Amino acid sequence: MWVMCVKASYQIIISMKRSLQNILGLLVLGLLSSCGATSNLEITAMEPAAINLEQELGRIGIINSSNPEVDASSKDKLTAHYRKQDSKLAQSGVTAALEGLQETLQADARFDKVVLITETPEILVGLGTESMQVAWQSIANLCETYEVDAIFALANYETDTEVRLKKTSYLALDLIRVENKVRGHEVTVETLIENGWRIYEPKSKKILDEFSSKQEIVSVGQGLTPVRAMENLGSRYDDVVYQSKKSGTHYGSRLKPMERKIAREYYSKGSPTFEKAHAHALDEEWDKVKQLWEQEVNNPNQKIKQRACHNLAVWFEYQNQLAQAIVWATIANELGNNKKVKAYLENLLKRENQDMLVQNQLVQTQFSD
Questions:
Q1: Within 13 Å of residue 21, how many CA atoms lie on the same side as its CB?
Q2: Against a cut of 0.85, is the pTM above it?
């Protein structure tokens, strides 16, 4: 009798367990069906230049007001060795950064004159950021002497190097050109370069822009001895000069409108038509996608109708027809309270304002030709 009771209890427990599993399964299925109703579409848009200069600033002077100082002290002799090299590399890096900026500005059609001023007044070297510290009279004198309207300055240039040496195994070719695993040493040299830039406009006595960037150079060498590993590092000089020039080019590019990628959400579920349209979207058959979404615009279900209008707004933005995108996003927003739809309309209106600035900048720089 006792055995039968135990068996009955066991069967009840098993039955309850299975019921609980079924309930949990249904809950999970419900959650999954409620999520993932949207998919992402990547759209290319033009972003206004980070620096919006006035049109009258057509003549530019470039100076080096940095004071590169490299701390060569280190308890580690190997690190100290490379930091001493950085003292010489910094001068070449500064020159490359200034050249990178000059070449970029010369390619900008809005500037009639771009001159690299090789002699910087001592009062401007290592200049602080507070406006009261800026020697405006010296900047004004530079502008008058070189007949320029504004001064672009490399405000700071700093390097910091760390070195790691360890024993390791690596593949090396023997005398008959066969790879063998050998025991040796590996040296890693990490150099961090930090650049700071400013733009001075003497008439308004304003710093129009201040920007800093960092680049990391990592060099790895392997060899049977630490000396051999160091010899196999390659040219740090070329790397430092390249990255420094790139930083100057990058800063000059901040004056240009730039392309950026925007992720937009469209509804891919909610109706069989949405799912069919999503399949065509994966194949980039956008005309078919639009036709299917247009079918749902007249759907008696208000939710599906709103989603279809939202999707059409995304389609028009993808086709670079921003005005039509705003029309459909407005219609979608008026069909009901939907935070996602409302946020998208706000983003479109913000982009519309930005596009006006972009077009003005494109006209100034003649990048639209």
A1: 6
A2: no
